[in-house]
Amino acid sequence: MFGKVILEEAFALPRMKKETEAWAGLFAIDGKKHAHEVNDIDETRMAYMDKYGVGYQILSYTAPGVQDIRDPKEAQALAREINDYIANQVKGKEDRYGCFATLSMHDPQEAAAELERCVKDYSFKGALVNDTQRSGADGEGMIFYDTPEWDVFWQTCTKLDVPFYLHPRNPTGAIFEKLWKGRDALIGPPLSFAQGVGLSTLGMITNGVFDRNPKLQLIIGHLGEHMPPDLWRIDHWLEDIKKPLGYAPQCKKGVREYFSENIWITTSGNFSGPLLQLCMTEMSADRILFSVDYPFENFHDACTWFDGVELNLRDKLKIGRENAKKLFKLGQY
Ligand code: GRE
Fold this sequence. Notes:
Layout: E1 4-11, H1 17-26, H2 31-39, H3 44-51, E2 54-61, H4 72-90, E3 97-99, H5 108-122, E4 127-130, E5 133-135, E6 141-143, H6 151-160, E7 164-167, H7 173-180, H8 192-206, H9 209-212, E8 218-220, H10 231-242, H11 255-261, E9 263-266, H12 273-283, E10 288-289, H13 299-308, H14 313-327
Parallel strand pairs: 1-2, 2-3, 4-7, 7-8, 8-9, 9-10
Antiparallel strand pairs: 5-6
Helix pairs in contact: 1-2, 4-5, 5-6
């Protein structure tokens, strides 16, 4: 299929070479190849797009990025540097590249203002943020975005009419020590990423973020971070057992409704035909967006899988490009 749109595609700052290679090393990824691909914007990346029928991609800063910086001033300065850098890199290539804003999530007002700057000045397509912001003097604090003080930020997303991509980050500090040390193989795609994003997403739902901000659109990757196959059980316990007994959640609707009105999932890094079918059954093809997860995954695996997956043409076009064109108002890119 030609003209596919992809939207969980990472870049890094060339000056952060050491951090980029360390990150690759953490996941047993070839550091040299990774550093080249993640820093390259226009040559290798564009050649892959042309070869595999990708018309447009939205770039975002590689994890853990700004969410790993506990100092609010330093985090904000890095976010601005990244946004200015990538806006400059894609200038003149807007027919092929868009960008998600990178945000410091220490302060809701500041995050809202930076998002607004990026959307208004640079036509960025939304924000991509890693779940939980490291904070506090010892770096042991974790800021979640599901408390009422974040409503000012969510209101800005809906006012600007841009979606928010909730991306995973790795467990650090005491969480790493208590849960993951000794089980290191499970950090990242095998388990920890899905747990982190699942907790944040369901936290937003059960704490009423979408009731207070009904137009908010949240994107999650990796075919829904383990949630779509579990929707029945999550919904059953919240609606049939916890709510009648007067326990939280504070949300008005059933979890399934948020998954059909507020949540999108992408195929980033999860090229499973059977799981795609299940997600279409649970959420409908209208809420699914094709993506690669470059350079953690490659164009060949993602695109040959999607092009070949058995699917009626109408749904394939929706997932491959039409849903994204509507969500991001891409027009005739
Ligand atoms: C990602 O950011 O999506 C990612 C990593 C590391 C390994 C795999 C992966 O940052 O998908």
